[in-house]
Design a protein that fits this description.
disordered N terminus; alpha+beta; 8 strands; 15% helix; four-stranded antiparallel β-sheet; Gamma-B Crystallin, domain 1
Length: 118
């Protein structure tokens, strides 16, 4: 009975490890941006280890019906393309890995991080 329980626990742990994202699925580090909320207060948002290869509509600004975010700063190990439109549409700019903060006039609604080899 102990052998079956041990084997089942081992298989469950192995399945859990396989389901965890690998290093190629996330940029490592932080991506920051700012936005002005409904009370006219500037807010700062930080994404920690954001997903790579997928379009991400940013929190509070990822809809074309609201004011965009601004001043993005890519402090991850992956290049990122920032878009002025939702769903990675519209004008775009590439920010290099571990770059300096962009100026506040660079607007952003969505981003896509480059997939880094794992």
């Amino acid at each position: 009975m102990k052998l079956r329980t041990t084997a089942a626990a081992t298989m469950a742990a192995f399945a859990l490890v396989l389901s965890l994202p690998g290093s190629a699925s996330a940029a490592e580090g932080y991506f920051h941006y700012k936005y002005v909320d409904g009370y006219a207060q500037e807010q700062h948002v930080t994404l920690h280890d954001p997903h790579s290869g997928k379009c991400v509509n940013l929190y509070a600004v990822g809809d074309d019906e609201v004011q965009p975010g601004y001043g993005p700063h890519n402090d991850t190990d992956s290049a990122v393309v920032v878009y002025t439109g939702a769903n990675c549409q519209g004008p775009e700019w590439k920010l290099r890995a571990h770059g300096n903060p962009a100026r506040d006039d660079l607007l952003v609604r969505s981003v896509r991080f480059a997939v880094t080899p794992g």
